[in-house]
Amino acid sequence: MGVATKVSALFLVPFSGLMALAIYLADVGITTDRKWRKALRVAVVLAVWAGIVGLTFTLLWPAVWADPAAAIRRLLGGSSELAGAGHRQFFLGQVVDDPGPWFFPVVFLFRVSPLTLLGIVASLPVILRLRSTHIFFRRRSGDRLGVQGWGEGEGQRLIKSSLFWLWAYACLFVAFITLSPKKLDRYLLPVFPAVALLAAAGLWELAETVQNKAPGVLSRWATGAARFLPLGCLILQAAFLFPHYPYYFTFYNPALGGIQQASHLILVGWEEGLEKVAHYLNEKEGIEDRRVLAWYSALGFNTLFRGESRELSPRRQPADDVWPWYESDYVAFYINQVQRELPDARTLAFLRSLEPEYTVRLKGLEYAWVYRVPEAVPEDAYPFEQVTLVDLEDKVRLLGYDAGEVTVGADGKAYLPLTLYWQNRGPLEANYRLYLKLINGVYHLWGQQEGYPLWDGFMTSTWQKGVVIRDDRQIEILPGTPPGAYQVTVHWLDPYSGLSLQPTSGGDLLLGPFDIPPRPPPTIESLGIEHPMTAELGGQVRFLGYNLESDFRPGDGLHLTLFWQALAEMNENYTVFTHLIDEKQNIWGQKDNQPVDGFYPTSQWEAGEIVRDQYDLTISPEAPPGPYRIAVGMYRAETGERLIVERDSILPADKIVLGEFMVRGK
User: Fold this and answer.
1) pLDDT tens digit string along 298-324?
2) CB–CB of 319/458 below 8 Å?
3) How far is Cα 110 from Cα 588, in angstroms, rounded to an integer?
């Protein structure tokens, strides 16, 4: 049962093996033949025990019936993942994911009573005086396993050895659960039965010591008092615990400062007191139509509250409402939530700066707070870095966004992570598709991403009014995109009707700027060069090829993408010329500027860097139909001197002439 419900119960397997080994080593002075028979008996006992465990495990877990190996792999894999992931904790006044090896000892000291702690300490001398005959259950030849029929000495040894193994179990179990970064105080529960037995034995040992060493009348008094020791301990334990009725979880060792001191060192609170929050809110008029967010709502608060309740936890929010308190009427904060700064420090700081409408106090400590959500929320309370508040035709509002660092995948592709926060302001009949484009200052395209929200998994027609949606995006950056500042345009388009949602303020929805850092040069193959060709300019720049897009009619535009590679670092800023020429070298369109629309001059290029460079030329409306070519090259703007172009040999006019294409008639 334990293994099926808690992986920490796996500790029982090696510990039981250790106990079995102790039983095997118990006998002294027996023959080798009897040793083997004893080993066989122990093995049989272990096999029967393991069989019972396995049978129980199988009967209570139907998944094992279909595919035992896969089910066990999932169990061990999931357990390893959860155990290694850590858990946001509050320990020694700090928020940490792994509180370290002292967590369980500190929690234990706060969770036991002074009487229990006294008994545990009193049992230590007994353990320290143990000999190997006590530890390994050793007895004289001919004795049977069991207390019945044994002499007093043998019975005492059995009791003392039991104390040793209780101590061993408690200490080794704590060491076992300490190995995982994920630590919660409830993980200590399996040690408390052993601790209770140790404390009882320690208190009895303490009473016997006092009785034996007390002189005269005091000794007789101690002997009489010992008869009432169990009752006295029960009354004393009740005196510690009953003042906490009905909230027994508020008990913390008064010898260490009680709950007041514990709240500064460890996590406090397991839902106790939330029923007072529900009772307070239920008394309000019209509460049935109100929304309240509360910690542990899904576990119990929603069964007590008469209105709509939602979970104020980042782990349990549905995908269609990542910021529910923004549209809620009340928020109830709980003590362990505040200790761990959840759901996020910004939200916590804002709401905690308000005056609580109601406060729950247990044993003098504030446990829960009820806040009325204000009509206007300041920008610094929003749970994202950039606040925009842009409305699209009163149907959708972009509240803001977060941008991550540019990442480069194993395939060499670079991505700009972007998280958008949308709020549905009205009915959305269509399923809109989002188009994101990475652009520079002249709207040239340097990357894009498109799709329905939530990776095509959440159609906009299903959005409920008022919800806030977190939409994660990965904009793929075109290979060869130079470093610099860029912006992102966002468009909402219904692909079936062709209708789009426009910002009510006019213009485009622009985000940024975003800094694209330098990256390792991409491979030539990843550039997607449609017309590869090679030439060198002045021994400083290599031309790799080009792409060309156009309808090739007079008055139309030509979109030209050039690909350069720096052969060495340059101290000068060269200008690129692109000339549309006919067979007689007449120019019918041109564009001259420094690379990348002037945003990335050649003096900033690093040796080996590959640069994607875009140009827009217009074919003159007067251009006659016929064959045309584009000539490109670089020159010094101050003198007009061109860089020498070499392609097997020096090319005339120091220019690279691209492939021929036909311009059609109007």
Assistant:
1) 567 888 899 888 877 655 444 455 666
2) yes
3) 86
pLDDT in tens, 113-136: 999 999 999 988 877 776 555 555
* C-alpha to C-alpha distance for 503 and 332, rounded to whole angstroms: 35
From residue 475, alpha-carbon distances to 100, 364, 393, 438, 514 in Å are 39, 53, 25, 8, 12
Domain that holds residue 622: 524-663
Say how far apart CA 383 and CA 419 lie, in whole Å: 12
- pLDDT tens for 18-43 read 776 666 665 544 455 566 776 677 67
What's the pTM?
Answer: 0.66
Closest CA to 430 of 392, 453, 459, 394: 459
φ, ψ of residue 512 to 5 degrees: the values are: 120, -165
Q: Please count the residues of the chain.
A: 666
Q: Helices in 405-505 by DSSP H: which ranges?
A: 453-456
Q: Verify that 552 and 656 share a domain, yes or no.
A: yes
Are 61 and 197 found together in one domain? yes
Q: Which of 459, 490, 516 is the last residue of a domain?
A: 516
CA–CA dist 372, 357 (Å, integer): 7
Alpha-carbon span 201 to 206, nearest angstrom: 9
3-state SS, 563-601, equals EEEECCCCCCCEEEEEEEECCCCCEEEEEEECCHHHCCC
Strands 308-311 and 291-294: parallel
- pLDDT, greater one: 445 or 86: 445
Distance CA 294, CA 336 (A): 12
Asked if 118 and 220 sit in the same domain, the reply is yes
- Residue 638: which residues within 8 A CB-CB, separation 6 or more? none
Candidates 655, 583, 578; CA nearest to 618 is 578
The H or E element containing residue 140 is: none
Task: Identify whether the C-beta of residue 436 lies closer than 8 Å to the C-beta of residue 450.
Answer: yes
CB 406 within 8 A of CB 423: no
| Tokens describing residue 438 | 């990475």
The CATH code of the domain that includes 550 is 2.60.40.2550
Euclidean distance between CA atoms 34 and 52, whole angstroms: 27
- Residue 394's H or E segment, with its range, is none
Kindly give, in sequence order, each residue whose CB lies less than 8 Å from that of residue 593, ignoring residues fewer than 6 positions away: 575, 576, 615
Question: Lowest mean pLDDT: which of 16-25, 413-422, 587-596?
Answer: 16-25
Binned at pLDDT 50, 70 and 90, residue 78 comes out as low
Structure tokens at 154: 């043998």
Same domain, 498 and 593: no
| Cβ within 8 Å of residue 254, ≥6 positions away | 114, 240
* Confidence band for 158, pLDDT divided at 50, 70 and 90: low
Q: How far apart are CA 666 and CA 658, in angstroms?
A: 24
Looking only at the bridges linking them, the beta strands covering 407-408 and 414-424 are: antiparallel
Find where tokens 């061109």 sit: 642
Residue that finishes a domain, picked among 516, 533, 559: 516
Structure confidence at residue 451 (pLDDT): 93
Which amino acid appears at position 300 of this protein? G
Would you say 342 and 315 are in contact if contact means Cβ atoms under 8 Å apart?
Answer: no
**Please, which residues bridge with residue 578 across strands?**
591, 632
> Can you tell me the distance from the alpha carbon of 326 to that of 373, in angstroms, rounded to the nearest whole number?
8
**Is residue 131 included in any domain, yes or no?**
yes
